[in-house]
Design brief:
The complex is a heterotrimer of chains A (555), B (405) and C (370). Chain A contains 19 helices and twelve strands. With 555 residues, chain A is of the alpha+beta class. In chain A, strands 1-2-4-5-3 form a five-stranded antiparallel β-sheet, with helices on both faces. Chain B is an alpha/beta fold and 405 residues long. Chain B folds into two domains: 204 residues, no CATH class; 151 residues, GMP Synthetase, Chain A, domain 3. Chain B contains 13 helices and 13 strands. In chain C, helix 4 runs antiparallel to helix 5 and helix 6 packs across helix 12. The longest helix of chain C is centred in the C-terminal third of the chain and has 42 residues. The chains are: A alpha+beta (555), B alpha/beta (405), C mainly alpha (370). Chains in contact: A-B, A-C, B-C. At the B-C interface, helix 1, helix 8 and helix 11 of B face helix 5, helix 6, helix 10 and helix 11 of C.
Chain lengths: 555, 405, 370
């Protein structure tokens, strides 16, 4: 009988009592007055940890106290020199004075300890959490309050050139994992009181600090509020990287196109903040997340703006071409070869037929096979350690290209086409957007294999329609091309000179529209050299003196 | 509605995707197509007619008489024998395949052709169609219908008339080019670029054939010494039947009347007063055609302005040292050109072939006259021999080359 | 509706342009030449004027009721039931228009490009594309049109520009051939039937930022699309001559075929032209499909149109498959096109007149008591 009937097993698994669960259950209880009880409670929750450091001592030689901290997180020197030492020795100005118990905390915090971050707290859960963040807690026998002092010191790597976004012209600083350094990198570029940083803690286990940065008066208030709302709705165990946040706050997670942009560069972040976007930083991740985004950001780099406008425009045009190539080139090849060879010049068409003569399967399959092998190769080279990687990638490409052709597995033109496509996809600066196009290449190839050029058009229309219907935090994805915006258009295909773009693009609905000052920019007037300039000076001097200079400001 | 809307959507989308599994209907690999590069059409001889198999009809019950059967020769490119890169020396195999079939009409012949060729025939790269003179004189309208209906055929393909049988052209092996028919096609295409022939491609042939006031013309080729092809003149048509051909120099004159800007023909002009000649080559032309009615009868005035250069003088006894002698040469050249033009127009009038397009001018500029008296193409062909014309030629010799004498 | 009113004047213009330029661009010269021979450009011009007149009536009517579409304000003007009946006519007409456009599209593709692919597949793919895109709101609708317009206009202009090299101005004369005035009038109607898509302006006006600029938008829309059509007719007539055009189904396509990019890099430009034309057809189909669904939604006061867009598709497909062959299809198109003019021009004119009468009467009634 029991073979045929499935018994429902309702056995409940016993729940493990983890310390965090214990903390969550109780709510914030105040600590008791007795030192022994306090120490016992701490040992109950954290006692198994090797790095729990409890040092009992006497304050001013009189009052029993203990310092509790997690030694792996703290700066021992600070604990010893600036906290324990002054507490154990009576300071000069207090010698001989009365130090009653009820005033002790105040005395310690304001007159004794050499630390700017000394604060008072009394909730047990709060203190434990602070300890877990690297603060040292001083328990005093007989007093409810405890003092906690920030003595955090964690090894972090130095600021280096960002690996994913390398430029030739432009700053070489990149974000690191520590959020306070990152905010510092932003703040020194924006020494204005409008730059606001709001923090929240997200993630049940990681309790990561998440910072929302924006420029008040330029960023749109609704967007900022929306960002806060979406972030506050996240309920998850761990936020290990900005990417986790991105997946929760995106408008349309099923779309292949990213609706946020992540960057490792502080100068790019600051530039976007100034346009009116909001930046989100997470402790532990060297990337900052920018919202809202539009599609044409994905082929722009900071280098475009640091260089002169002709150079920037030209390079940008090349990038756009590479982007289009990486999407449709293999499909165009397939449709020309299999469906419409009459488009090719006759001699070339006949010769291509010759190249394909030995290949045993249709052009679609051939292209798909080589594309898939290219994708695998690309993924493999990312994972290889540096020493092996360089040589292997060259060998791999040569082998696949040359040998495959000679073995009759593909025609030489296919290899050229796929190689150009792959190179083109590298030219898109944003990794996530390039990936979207890489992925979308495959459905379009299949459509091209079924319908030819018509299939390519249908696929492209489909993709464009999808992009046109996406919104990122209320901003249409294809602005400023689709809801047209004359100011924004100046930056889409070519990069107009900076003095031609006096207003911010409208799609972000910034509160403050003016980029350049109201007086005419005197940039082009600098072209007058020599006599003309002297003449100008005689007539009262140049009118624009917007940047004040002073002698003793090196900061 | 259904309990789970998502399931419904998935089911519907799967249903839609099923027809796609049946395959890519139109996909045909480029190496699996038989690219027909050139076609030659001849009249089928007696024994050839007997060779026809029953492919598009059973028995002999179609109304087209056997005597009008055509022989079609096709030159098909063989993939694999034509390499992508530079040609390896010592390629002994011919890169093209030549196939001959007979049929009652062009489409009939194509169907017969398909029976003999392994891959599916593809006409998208058809660059040139050669008609033998016999067939052209018999009438070309029967081919136009097939060529127009088929969407694969380009309007920029070339159509030419040949003196010999068209099959000979398909079997040619010129040394200048890997693929023989491409040499032929390129040559014909370049004719108008060099200035040896007015622009002509099959689309233009059809347009002119359809228009009411003009008769079509085609290049006339001949083979000299086994492998060399020569442009031997212009074949002019009455309706769709070829009625005559001009000689090569007359092509230049024809271009003058039609107003084709680019010159290319040179002629020997006798220097007045001497027994010597110089070679004067036309560089560019400008033409103005005016049509009027004189006493109710159509009259055409053509005014042509030539810009020429002297390329060569025959003997050292002529001195091209002053402008007076150039003026003399100019007047002499104008005179002889005018004569030649009048001769040509008369020649075409005899054959009732208005290749110059005078009828179009009448239709466009004198619509009342046209609507009352002419209206149709046949009527114009009757009136054409009766029209009067006068020609004025004005040559300017602008250049004499680098030699000062 | 609840959607923010964000359609700018430029967007309205581009919507009109891309809706009008559609399937009709291919057989247009054939219709014009059948009617007027060398005076085909003249016939086209008169057709454009008639269409412009119709559009202005619609725009003006819409500006008088800037918050409502024709479905709802027709109920205001001529009464609830009468308005509903006429609206049903309008909706049915656009349903048929969508299916005919899809069928014509399929016919061109199957004849000219993909000869082995079954007609049903081409039609279904296009209808599917349109119905999936119709699930969005009207702002995305205008973004889509706005985006595609330059891609549609530019290649057509380039092809026309390159082709003029072969033009023969004799074919364009005489400009006005007064032979067959009745035929020319019929041709004028056929040409203006090609502009019927502009009816959607009634749907756009309620969502425009500044509805009083609707007239300006329609003016520019007709100018650009009409100008393009005129240019195409002139170019084809000049290059092929009226007699040759009478033998070709799709003269515009032949125009693209004859044109070669200088240097002979690409030889058969008609394939590229067809690819761009797919875009133009898609925008037209999208517009008429969206209009049908949107109007249905308004007529029956449904909440949203997403499910409706899938629901209608089988009907459209069925109607598209009805004509037996291509000649039959063109007969139906001509017939329905001309009948449709009644709906798109006479009906709005009728509404406008009654609207004027009512407001005049209302003013009189207001003036009386004083």
């Amino acid at each position: 009988m029991s073979l045929f009937r499935k018994k429902k097993r309702n056995v409940k698994k016993p729940q493990l009592l983890t310390p965090s669960k214990a903390l969550e259950k109780k709510g914030d209880t105040p600590t008791s007055i007795s030192l022994m009880v306090k120490i016992k409670e701490v040992k109950e929750l954290l006692g198994n940890n090797e790095d729990l450091q409890i040092k009992e001592f006497k304050i001013f030689g009189q009052y029993p106290a203990a310092s509790v901290c997690l030694s792996s997180l703290i700066n021992q020197d600070v604990l010893n020199q600036d906290i324990l030492k002054p507490l154990m020795y009576v300071p000069e100005h207090l010698k001989g004075k009365e130090k009653p118990l009820n005033e002790l905390v105040h005395l310690i915090v304001t007159e004794t300890v050499y630390h700017s971050q000394a604060k008072v707290a009394e909730g047990k859960e709060q203190l434990i959490e602070l300890m877990l963040r690297g603060e040292s807690v001083i328990f005093i026998d007989g007093i409810k309050d405890s003092i906690h002092i920030d003595t955090r010191k964690i090894e972090k790597r130095s600021i280096a050139q960002p690996e994913t976004e390398q430029v030739i012209l432009g700053p070489r600083e990149g974000f690191i994992e520590s959020i306070s350094t990152n905010i510092a990198l932003l703040r020194y570029r924006l020494p204005t009181p409008d730059f606001q940083v709001k923090t929240m803690k997200i993630g049940r286990l990681t309790k990561s600090t998440v910072a929302i940065c924006y420029l008040k008066g330029i960023a749109n208030e609704t967007v900022v509020k929306e960002v806060e709302k979406r972030l506050s709705e996240i309920n998850i165990d761990a936020i290990l990287d900005v990417g986790y946040l991105e997946q929760f706050i995106e408008d349309n997670p099923f779309s292949p196109f990213p609706q946020t942009q992540s960057t490792e560069r502080p100068d790019k972040t600051v530039a976007n903040l100034i346009e009116g976007r909001v930046a989100i930083l997470v402790d532990g991740s060297p990337f900052s997340l920018l919202v809202p985004v539009v599609f044409n950001q994905f082929y722009q780099t900071t280098e475009d703006y640091s260089s002169r406008f002709l150079m920037g425009s030209f390079v940008r045009l090349a990038r756009i071409l590479a982007l289009v190539f990486s999407l449709v080139f293999p499909s165009l090849y397939v449709s020309l070869i299999s469906f419409n060879p009459e488009l090719l010049p006759t001699e070339f068409a006949v010769a291509v037929a010759g190249g394909r003569a030995g290949v045993p399967y249709p052009a679609v399959i051939e292209v798909l096979i080589i594309e898939v092998s290219m994708e695998i190769l690309r993924e493999a080279t990312v994972r290889l350690p540096k020493q092996v990687g360089g040589a292997l990638s060259i060998v791999g490409v040569l082998v696949i290209g040359q040998a495959a052709v000679e073995a009759g597995l593909s025609s030489p033109i296919t290899v050229v086409v796929i190689a150009l496509t792959t190179i083109g996809s590298f030219a898109t600066p944003t990794y996530t957007a390039a990936f979207a196009l890489r992925m979308l290449r495959f459905p379009i190839m299949i459509l091209a294999g079924i319908f030819g050029l018509y299939g390519v058009m249908v696929g492209v229309i489909f993709i464009f329609n999808h992009m046109l219907s996406l919104k990122s935090f209320g901003v249409p994805y294809m602005a400023p091309v689709s809801p047209e915006d004359s100011q924004g258009m100046k930056d889409v295909v070519i990069r107009s000179p900076l003095w031609w773009m006096p207003k911010r693009p409208e799609f972000l609905r910034p509160s403050n529209q003016n980029r350049l000052g109201l007086n005419d920019n005197k940039v082009l007037e600098h072209n007058k050299v020599g006599n003309d300039q002297r003449e100008d000076a005689a007539n009262g001097g140049s009118k624009g003196d917007h940047n004040y200079s002073s002698d003793n400001d090196l900061n | 509605m259904w309990q789970n809307q998502r399931e419904l959507k998935v089911a519907i989308s799967l249903l839609f995707l099923i027809p796609l599994l049946s395959g890519c209907w139109d996909s045909q690999e480029i190496e699996q197509r038989a690219n027909v590069l050139a076609l030659g059409v001849d009249k089928a001889s007696e024994e050839e007619r007997k060779k026809e198999d029953e492919i598009s009809h059973l028995g002999k019950r179609i109304p087209i008489p056997d005597e009008e059967m055509i022989k079609v020769t096709a030159q098909i490119a063989v993939p694999g024998r034509i390499p992508l890169g530079p040609q390896q020396p010592g390629g002994s195999e011919k890169p093209v395949l030549v196939v001959e079939v007979v049929g009652h009409t062009l489409e009939d012949a194509m169907l017969n052709l398909q029976q003999e060729v392994a891959d599916e025939i593809f006409l998208g790269h058809l660059r040139i169609i050669v008609l033998s003179e016999e067939i052209a004189r018999h009438g070309t309208a029967r081919f136009n219908d097939f060529l127009r209906r088929n969407p694969e055929i380009r309007r920029t393909a070339a159509l030419v008339v040949s003196k010999e049988s068209a099959a000979k052209y398909m079997n040619l092996d010129p040394e200048l080019e890997r693929i023989p028919s491409l040499y032929l096609a390129d040559m014909v295409d370049n004719l108008s670029a060099i200035g040896k022939f007015p622009p002509s491609f099959i689309g233009l042939f059809w347009t002119i054939y359809s228009s009411k006031g003009q008769d079509p013309y085609l290049p006339y080729l001949t083979v000299i010494e086994k492998t060399t092809i020569q442009l031997n003149g212009l074949a002019y048509f009455h309706g769709d039947k070829m009625v005559g051909k001009t000689n090569p120099l007359e092509i230049g004159i024809f271009m003058a009347v039609r107003g084709v800007g680019r010159g290319g023909y040179g002629a020997f002009i006798q220097v007045p007063g001497k027994d010597e000649s110089v070679l004067v080559r036309a560089v560019s032309r400008k033409t103005r055609t005016k049509v009027t009615l004189r006493n109710g009868k159509p009259h055409v005035s053509v005014k042509i302005q030539y810009e020429s250069e002297i390329d060569e003088k025959e003997s050292a006894s002529i001195e091209l040292s002053d402008s007076a002698i150039l003026k003399k040469i100019e007047t002499e050249s104008s005179k002889s050109t005018k004569k030649a033009i009048e001769k040509l127009i008369a020649k075409t009038q005899k054959s009732k072939s208005d290749i110059f397009g005078f009828g179009e001018h009448f239709r466009a500029k004198l619509p009342h006259y046209w609507n009352r008296n002419v209206k149709t193409k046949e009527k114009w062909d009757e009136i054409y021999p009766e029209i009067t014309f006068d020609v004025t030629v004005d040559s300017h010799i602008h250049r004499v080359g680098m030699k000062s004498k | 509706m609840g959607d923010p009113k964000e359609i700018t004047t430029i967007q309205a213009t581009t919507i009109l342009i891309s809706t009008i330029i559609g399937v009709g661009v291919l057989p247009l010269p054939l219709f014009a030449v059948r009617a007027g021979e060398t005076s085909a450009p003249f016939v086209t011009l008169t057709g454009i004027f008639l269409a412009a007149l119709g559009l202005f009536i619609l725009a003006y009517l819409g500006m008088r009721h800037p918050q409502k579409t024709i479905i709802t304000y027709s109920q205001d003007i001529i009464g609830k039931w009468l308005g509903r009946i006429f609206s049903i006519f309008v909706i049915c007409f656009f349903l048929v228009l969508t299916s005919l456009a899809a069928r014509e599209f399929g016919a061109v593709v199957v004849t000219g490009v993909l000869r082995e692919t079954p007609l049903e597949v081409t039609v279904i793919v296009m209808l599917l594309l349109a119905s999936i895109s119709c699930r969005n709101n009207i702002n995305v609708f205008s973004y889509i049109h706005n985006f595609y317009v330059p891609m549609i206009l530019a290649p057509v202009l380039i092809v026309v520009a390159f082709s003029l090299k072969n033009a023969n101005p004799l074919y364009l004369r005489p400009v006005f051939l007064g032979n067959d005035l009745r035929g020319m009038a019929a041709g004028m109607l056929t040409v203006s039937a090609l502009f019927q898509g502009s009816f959607i302006i009634t749907m756009i006006i309620p969502s425009m930022k500044s509805p009083n600029k609707a007239l300006k938008a329609s003016f520019w829309g007709i100018l650009i699309s009409g100008g393009l059509y005129l240019l195409i007719v002139i170019a084809t007539v000049a290059i092929f001559g009226p007699e040759e055009i009478k033998q070709i189904f799709w003269p515009t396509l032949e125009l693209a075929r004859t044109t070669a990019v200088p240097g002979n890099i690409l030889q058969r430009l008609d394939i590229i032209f067809l690819a761009v034309w797919v875009l133009a057809v898609f925008t037209t189909l999208f517009s008429s499909y969206y209009f049908t669904i949107h109007s249905l939604k308004e007529l029956f006061q449904l909440k949203d149109h997403k499910m409706l867009s899938y629901f209608i598709m089988p009907f459209v497909f069925f109607l598209a498959m009805l004509p037996q062959n291509i000649l039959h299809m063109y007969e139906i198109i001509q017939y329905i096109g001309r009948a449709g003019l009644l709906i798109t021009i006479m009906y709005p004119a009728f509404l406008l007149i009654i609207d004027f009468l009512r407001s005049w009467r209302r003013k009189k009634n207001v003036a009386k008591p004083t």
